[in-house]
Amino acid sequence: MPSDEERQREIKTIREIQEKRANWPFIDDDEAVA
User: Fold this and answer.
1) Domain segments of the chain as ranges
2) Average pLDDT per 10 consecutive residues for the chain, totaling 34 residues
């Protein structure tokens, strides 16, 4: 089980990726996932 801290970091990373994706719709999916 990941700790709360690790889970928060994962959520933050996912949010940042989603925001980048929203701001840059033309970005490569491969780049957004990386």
Assistant:
1) 4-33
2) 92 91 68 55
- Asked if residue 27 lies in contact with residue 20, where contact means CB atoms within 8 angstroms, the answer is yes
Q: What is the DSSP letter of 27?
A: S
Q: What is the pTM of this model?
A: 0.51
Q: Give CA 13 to chain center in angstroms.
A: 4
Distance CA 24, CA 16 (A): 12
Q: Tokens standing for 28?
A: 């490569």
Token pair in block for residue 16: 């940042």
Cβ–Cβ < 8 Å for 21, 32: yes
